[in-house]
User: Fold this.
Amino acid sequence: MTAAPFDLVDARDSFTDTDWFHACRNAQTPYVVIRSGEMSADVLWDYVTLPPCCDARIQANFAALEREVRAIFDRFAVPGSYLRIKPTLICFDHLPVAQAKRAASDLYGVIASYLPSGPSPSRPEAPRKSDSANPPPDVHDINRPIEPDMGNRRFWMEERDHSPSPA
Assistant:
């Protein structure tokens, strides 16, 4: 495994069934990948490499996980970025490449806190201001309509099933 807690792949390349995936699965660590293009990158976390005991912990703490993930996204998103989140998959789409690397490291840390050997999930810190000169607007709750001042940012979230996943 590399020193970074994520794998950086070209947007044109497939990242499934890679050495990074196998290393994460064997170590039972979070599988975080950055798919990088010339101008932007997508950060992806998939639960598939985590041990089954993490499923219940993530489900039981999903509201806290969602707050922590949104805070990371808010720090690094720019107009045109969007967030996809559910208990088994998290994506930050269309981030600047430099921000994507930092977001991927932060996302890895949050997911690692749900591992059996990791610390218990904690309350998220208050979101830090964006590094850009024009910070993006807040991501709004999907239960409220998106305000017209959201610009090009979009928020998408799948319906989630709160029942325990089958073991």
Q: What stands out?
A: Residues 120-152 have pLDDT under 50 and may be disordered. The beta strands are 7-10, 31-36, 41-46, 82-86, 89-95, 154-156. Residues 113 and 120 are 6 Å apart (CA to CA). The radius of gyration is 16 Å.
